[in-house]
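Summary for the steering committee. One of the milestones for this cycle was to obtain a three-dimensional model of the protein with guanosine-5'-diphosphate bound, which we needed before selecting residues for the alanine scan. The sequence and ligand used are listed below.
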Amino acid sequence: MTERTLAIIKPDAVAKGVAGQILSRIERAGFTILAARLTRLSREQAGGFYAVHRERPFYASLCAFMTEGPCLVLVLEGDDAIRRWRDLMGATDPAQAAPGTIRRDFASSIEANAVHGSDSPASAAFEIPYFFSALDLCPR
Ligand code: GDP
């Protein structure tokens, strides 16, 4: 089934200069990029995006990390896009991520882990409009 998912190339990966390599993996995997924006999140924007984690001990640190520099926010479309993008990303903790995954190759830590991906259709339905209006999307 064709799905849309929200992807973020996080501030650590943009700062390291590997955003292009990650985009290349996205294109090679056959995703269609419907929207892209380079943006530096405010504390409020990061906090709202990760509100589901507000009770977790790492919430404040995660929100601070996400504001450290610009990130590249993307909407990806493709068959089974939510699961396939998460497979390409790899496990949250790069030490647990499979060889060949983005996090295994580019993440620095469990927090600075290079990329984000919606984890369910419900998450994608919240996350895509958090950053993009319908008019920002370029379907083909
Ligand atoms: P994801 O869906 O794989 O991104 O993982 P989660 O939804 O569980 O966590 C969201 C984000 O919080 C992760 O991508 C990490 O950036 C960060 N994170 C997750 N677990 C930890 C942790 O134990 N410590 C810290 N500092 N950050 C974490």
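Key point for the committee: The helical segments are 11-16, 19-28, 43-49, 59-66, 81-89, 102-106, 121-131.
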